[in-house]
Amino acid sequence: MASTDDVSQKRAELERCPPGEDDRDVALFNLACALHERYDKEEEIDDLNEAITFHRAALSLRPVGNDDRSLSLLNLAFCLGIRYDQQGAVDDLEEAITLERDTLELSPPGHYNHDVCLYNLATHLEWRFRQQADMRDLDEVIDLHRAVLELYPPGHPERSSSLDQLALCLLNRYEDRGMVDDLDEVVTLRRAALELCPRGHPDHGESLHNLACDLRRRFTAQAAIRDLEESIELLRSALELRPPGHPDRSSTFHELALCLSNRYDKLGTVDDLEEAIVRGRAALDLHPPEHADRDESLHDLACALRKRFVKQATIHDLEEAIELHHAALELRPSGNQCRSSSLRGLALCLSNRYDKLGVVDDLEEAITLERTALELCPLGHADHGASLHNLACDLRKRFTKKAVISDLQEAIELLRPALKLRPIGHPDRSSSLHELALCLSNRHDKLGVVDDLEEAIALGGAALELCPTGHLDRGVVLYSLACNLWKKFQKQADMPELCREIFLDQAASVVCPTSRVDVAFSLSELSLHLWVRFQKQATMADLDNAICLATCAVELRLPHEDVSVGAWVQRVAQGAGSGEPVILGQAANDLCVLANCHRARYQTQHAIVDLNEAITYYRYMLQLRPAGHPSRASSLHDLAQCLADRFRRQSTTVDLDDAIVLEQEVLDLLVRGDPGYDESRVFLTTYLQMKFSSQVATMSTDASSVTLFDIKQVIRNVAFEILKTVPTRLLHTPTGILCNRDAQVSQFMNSQQYKRLVSLCTTRSRAQQMELIHTNVSRHFQYVTLSHRWGEAEPSLRDIEGHPIYGMSTKGGFGKLQAFCRVALERDYIWAWSDTCCIDKHSSAEVQETIGSMFVWYRQSALTIVYLSDVPSAGFLGNSEWFRRGWTLQELLAPKITVFYTQDWSLYKNLTSSNHKTDVAVLEELERATGIESRFLANFSPGMDDARSRLQWASSRRTTRPEDIAYSLFGIFNVHLPVLYGESAENATGRLLAEIISDSGDISVLDWVGEASSFHSCLPAHITSYQILPSPRLQPNSEEQSLAISQGLSSFEVLRNFATSLLPQFLSRSLRPSSITPADRLRIPDSYAPSDVYDFNSFTRAPLPRFRNRCLILPCIAHLITAAQLRGEDLSAPSYTYKIQARGLRPLEIELPDKLESATISQGALQLVRPWHSRGQSAALDATSEGRLLLTLGRPFNALLLIEVPHSQYKRIASSTLITAQPADSASILKSKVRIFHIV
Predict the structure, then answer these.
(1) DSSP labels for 773-836?
(2) How far is CA 919 from the centre of its chain?
(3) What is the number of alpha carbons within 13 Å of residue 128 lying toward its C-beta?
(4) What is the mean pLDDT of residues 779-808?
């Protein structure tokens, strides 16, 4: 360490080197280092300030090119970073970062300080991220730490700490963006760090603890129990290495308690909860009142005690939890980021105490606390959904107590947005579904609104699906659903008399049966009645409802010790349930109804899942009907038939063998003359024949000897294969019923066309069969698509699912849908698709798939019907609003065959053509209405060719949801990007345009005028900025007229076309020696730096434009602005006109919406640039090509105005009009250089 004597000695050395001496820079540097060392020892800020002063002086004497410059930069940046850490001056941090970037450029890979430069820059960028929360800094920090890690191979002493640093940064990014890939990498890095710190290493305990924490985080995100199990094991090992007195023992106690509590939530093991409480108390004991983490220990222990209360109902636990939450809340005053969680935890406990003791004041206080918590968790906060849910639950409780309808209405309003914040896959989605179902059921009881009950049943069913057998909440969810089903069906006029009498007896005292047994009995009776009615009337709704009711009835009858029907049946079959004869008989009847219903639905819809369910329930029945039971023979026979049906579908030999054994047992139980004997004998004979036939088919080598079962299975397989590229749901035009894939195939398998196809296949060879099958199945599943402008009351999936549309109202969108299906049927198509009702818009996954597939669906449709609701029969189609909507652009371009219908569903102009796209007159009208050339209208190919024109086509169109204007273009450009509803239109459009540039390198996308996007300065805020396809003006004295200009191409398009047509012809001579530097030869292909420069003879080597982390890497011919004089201003616009002088350009004027800062002009921060587009051919210019390039570059072009910002980056300044520039002369063109700009 430096002493005062050291500093004095260095001062004396400096005095001996006055200004002008060769070694003065060394003396300044040494004195600065000595002062820095003394600061490290004595922490006197004056020493640090003086060290910085002397480092600056040394740096001024070490200009660019000096071998020691990088060392001065590095040390000065280090000192500035220390001063920022002590005093918080942001300017110090910014300067340190700038200096370290310069140092890094002077310390390339291989330099002895390269790793230090990377690490220091990463550290200071991380400090800035903590200060400013700019994710771009964190992304760069991660890249830098990765680079450092590559320099520290296994065995390097710094590798372990480098692994931890990278893991921490990735963890920060995960917490901000929630990208699971980051968390997975964190776990991988932690494992690598643990391997470098084996048992006995001083950091072994810390490595165990860190890995355990991150595994618990991944469990929270992915719910993989193995992560939690491993985390607990690691923490137990870490605890052994942190004995009493260890400073980190409390944190391990606390983390272990959290993990155990999480495992209790997942598995319900009470021992885990008990240990979590013990560990939580131990952590709290190690956190005295002044400890920084005491509030967290209080809060987590309180939560664990509340869980034990919920499990064991011990009021002492709840009272203690409330006391702990109060104590934690005192340590989390207003402004504390954890205050909302304490408010929410205390409110939950008070609500539980109200449930236990009925003290209304507890409920009122809980509601007050939850409203406060909700204010602290606004929309976008991670706990906003939980706050909405909890407040809604207590408002419903208060409604139950006081019957104030406003509480119930508010609860419903809160639960709907809470449900949106808990999408499919969210661990708490089931509880929100259940709670909303309860509220709607209560409102139905209060106000009698039938729709509330229907929605409550639908939500309850969805909640039950998320609570599988064994789930802690399944019982309460099932009971609530069963009660709602009872309410729905008990009002039916034709219910069985016995059931009616039971309901009437109960009506005087209760609204709904009050016990599980009563509800189970009622639902059982109703399911049996619906099954009988289905057998008479064949109404599928009755069959579906019978299955639903019987399923609920069976599960409600399960004793508490049984978690599944199978477990209960097995226990009863072993004699454990002999004391439950009544329940046993009722459950057997329910199982019989379930088995029969699933079998009947399979025979109707041919869904294999129904057949499997029927087999399962028949097997259960057999266990409940042992030898000697009067109904055993019929159960055996029914099960045998189902197994034989499954063999026909799947050709599983064991199914057929089991069916034979079962029928043989039936014949053993019956004698000739008994009912069912002859039928069983016939079926046994059939099964034996099937077994023989299948064996013969297997042994045969004749390709044409295909059994009937083989043909049917092949047809079915082909049908499903063809339907993979067809919309998931289609309307069956003859019946008006919406069909999913299974229903579509079922309809085909029951059709006369299918029967004829099977018959024809029996006489054909295998090759002929396959051709015949593909032809017939493809023809059968041809479908028609509807293109229209959405109006009022459009039918949704929920509106029409399970109901023929022809029996519905003819008003609004329903009438339109009916007319569409009728017209499709008239044109001999039996399948139709509409975007109103054939999509489940509540499923984000399905919406994403639909948007990604819609262009293909319209392209593959046999016909697209365009309905122009605002065009009368004698009107002109170009007047329709249809041409101004966003989604209809792809619906115009994608289909191969299109017909237009007017307001009254008559053909446009009574044209009888099968395809209006082949009608010359219609094409001319379409071209006038859209501005799209007829060749594109008739034969459009999706992709990124001529992207600027495609953007112009969409620029005057609008969508209801702003972000849809970008999503509607995904198919047109053939891009596949995530659909993120809720993002801004600027963000959605920015992502699309960035993808176009990155994939195609098309710089014409940058040719626009208007407001710049917040997504990126080079992209427009609105797609309307592409309405005009600009072309730069030629000067009056130009000697040659450009063909591209005369055709209306922009300057960006000229360059793009030049690159594709002329550059491949370049070069028969080699490049000048100056045109390729050693750095060019050694450069990694994708490592283009802002300093890369390409002269006139190496333009072809410039890279293509692309986006990387929202930074546009753009090759440009740059022209530094040397003077900018304000010529006029219009404050009403506002508008500012400048006369510009730029190197290599003729003087020009530009018009800007904002005034330029004078300092910006004087500092040389402005550039006019001409984006360059190259296909990257490596060749030299021959004389002819060079002349043509000179001619091309000599024409006027549309320029971009850029301003330099920190970190060697640029931003585009949007202009009010096009900036048309022209090179000064040929000499200036020959001096042109292409630079790589990093634009943000």
Answers:
(1) HHHHHHHHT-EEEEEE---TT---HHHHTTS-GGGS--SHHHHHHHHHHHHHHHTT--EEE-TT
(2) 43
(3) 24
(4) 91
pLDDT tens per residue across span 1140-1163? 999 999 999 999 988 888 767 777
Over the stretch 1019-1055, which tens digit does the pLDDT of each residue have?
999 999 998 765 544 433 443 433 333 333 444 544 4
Name the amino acid, one letter, at 498: L
Given a cut of 50, whether residue 577 has pLDDT beyond it is: no
3-state secondary structure of 22: coil
User: Residue 867 pairs with which residues in a beta bridge?
Assistant: 788, 901
Which residue in this structure is represented by tokens 């300092």? 1159
Residue 527 has pLDDT above 80, yes or no: no
Banded pLDDT at 524 (limits 50, 70, 90)? confident
What backbone torsions phi and psi does residue 981 show, to the nearest 5 degrees? -60, 135
Burial class (CB in 10 A: 0-12, 13-18, 19+), 19: exposed
DSSP state for residue 1142 in the 8-state scheme: E
Maximum average pLDDT range among 697-706, 944-953, 1171-1180? 944-953
Query: How far, in Å, CA of 1156 to CA of 1137, rounded?
Result: 10
Task: Return the pLDDT at 955.
Answer: 92
Q: Count CB atoms within 10 A of the CB of residue 480.
A: 22
**Cβ-based neighbours of 411, under 8 Å, separated by 6 or more:** 391, 392, 393, 395, 396, 399, 439
Region 810-838 average pLDDT: 91
Cβ density class 1075-1105: b for 16+ within 10 Å, e for less: bbeeeeeeeeeeebeeebebbbbbbbbbbbb
* Nearest C-alpha neighbor of 430 from the set 484, 466, 387: 466
pLDDT for 3 equals 59
Put residue 1215 in one of left, alpha, beta given phi > 0 → left and psi -120 to 50 → alpha.
Answer: beta
* Contact by Cβ (8 Å): 141, 129: yes
Structure token pair of residue 1000? 């195609």
**What one-letter code names the amino acid at 1077?**
T
